[in-house]
Design brief:
The chain is built from 13 helices and 14 strands. The chain is of the alpha/beta class and about 400 residues long. A 7-stranded mixed sheet has the order 4-10-9-8-7-5-6, with helices on both faces. β7, α8 and β8 form a beta-alpha-beta unit. The radius of gyration is 21 Å and the shape is globular. The structure holds pyridoxal-5'-phosphate. The site of pyridoxal-5'-phosphate has 13 residues, from α5.
Length: about 400
Amino acid sequence: MQLGRHRWARRVASMTSFKVVDFLEAAERMQAAGRDIVRLEAGQPAFSTPRPIAEAARRALADEKTRYTPALGIAPLREAIAAFYAQRHGLKVAPERIAVTTGSSAALGLICDLLIEPGDGFLLTDPGYPCNANFVRRAGGEPQWVPVAAAERYQLTAAALAAHWRPNTVGALVASPSNPTGEIIARDQLAALHAATREHGGALVVDEIYHGLIYDEPETSILEFTDEAFVVNSFSKYFGMTGWRLGWMVLPEAAIEPINVMAQNFYISPPSIAQYAALAAFQPVVIDELEARRNEFRRRRDFLVPALRELGFDIPFAPAGAFYIYAGIAGLADDCEAFCWDMLERAGVAFTPGTDFGSHLARQRVRFSYTEPLERLELAVSRLRTALAAR
Ligand SMILES: Cc1ncc(COP(=O)(O)O)c(C=O)c1O
């Protein structure tokens, strides 16, 4: 691709696009044309931002908190996040180790830029969150895929890490709970993963963005085992603030200064109004509301998993967290993309093909997001039942 005498940089050509956007846009077009579509394709809760957070933003605007802030975020927010770790996990995290970022997307990019030299490899799970590979590529690195199976809860194990570690590998990135599978890394496995990365002299990045959305099992942060890991988190999912573009990371001590320099240069500061709004996110009244939402997500999962199984989707076990169900379609269709288009057209239900999240068995997988209310999920199931019976 060229514009006049300019050519695009090669690293851009190697980046992959999000297929879900094609479905999202098609669903929107169909809705604009008057058709009712059940939207189970996107990764954001339909809940709105809790009111106390929105009110704090209005106050911040009235108080003209509209200027740049320190690059790593305003001190009260870093302290509030540290207090949240103390309260939720009984962990003492120094506020100085917390860097507030423009969504966890900025955190992931900064971490990759810090750790990866051109030519270095970074281990990523297949399936996994698709943008991770592009952060690695942007830093000049090589995504090194580790196929993960249902038997391992679709997560990287210490044994798989050792088997896939190559001479140029410098680290591994995992997410617990993960997108697209909703699966978590169990406590002992997380400790083993830390030990294995350390043994190889690499860095471990743990994306904890779906923390707060785990339904039946205890929530374990990698910070319980080590101060050396890079931890990524966000206000997007549990706190219902996707559009505010606010996340954070917890850094090893030695990484604070270089990250500060990069954050100053690349972002100047995270969005100021969003930071002042987020100060209200840890109030008990907000947490109570978020916990009620968590229960609602559990209810949706507990409805949708058996209902989809009954339709012929293969779901080996109910996912532990997030708001995703990663389902096999081998008994229903050969190709996930054709299947998703067909179901969008004929059933009016939008969901995402597995090929968005990797290539390992991806053609036989799809992802459902249960971000819509229960009545809409019931409608989706009944429409899918009719459309599948008519084939
Ligand atoms: C696993 C994972 N990490 C990171 C992100 C980025 O989120 P944000 O930049 O809104 O914090 C997402 C978004 O869907 C995600 O699923």
